[in-house]
Specification:
Length: about 170
């Protein structure tokens, strides 16, 4: 498993998860239905983002992971999110990617004190990924996030290095 920035030539591999309703069901983004739509998402959202990486196996993208650092009063924290092609679920790939990303984020941003991840309450598998990567479940945020025409309960997870309370 390796991480690298996305390239336009990744579009066909990218299509494997952005066109899959099983992958996008519990994400903030909608399933792409055409290659043009996926290409627009790749070129306008993913490639310009400085910390949106391809999760790769043997150099081939099979998923994505991002870190969004906070600014101003929120510069002490960052948010992380990820998606993985369905056929690779359950193999520990995202857990390994998450550990790499957490390590890099704290190296790159010395002001960072915590990394957060919000996960839909229904997404038990994703919650387990975060726990295996060392994240702590802080609690359930009831009716917290409006996504895909529904208000969702979300679980807040955080990674806070060396916090004696955790």
């Amino acid at each position: 498993m390796s991480l690298r920035p996305f390239k336009l030539t990744d579009i066909d591999d990218f299509m494997a998860w952005v066109t899959d309703d099983r992958v996008s069901a519990l994400t903030h983004w909608d399933t792409c239905t055409t290659k043009v739509e996926a290409l627009n998402y790749l070129t306008k959202t993913i490639i310009p983002h400085p910390w949106f990486m391809a999760i790769c196996l043997n150099g081939k993208p099979i998923g994505s992971i991002f870190v969004m650092p906070g600014t101003g009063k929120h510069k002490c924290r960052a948010e992380v999110g990820y998606a993985l092609a369905f056929k690779y679920w359950g193999r520990g790939i995202v857990t390994r990617a998450m550990k790499v990303v957490v390590h890099r984020a704290f190296e790159e941003w010395p002001q960072l004190e915590r990394i957060e991840a919000l996960v839909a309450l229904e997404n038990v598998s994703s919650q387990r990924v975060l726990e295996k990567a060392g994240f702590f479940k802080e609690g359930v945020l009831v009716k917290y996030y409006n996504m895909k025409g529904k208000t969702w309960d979300m679980v807040m997870y955080s990674y806070v290095p060396n916090d004696p309370r955790l």
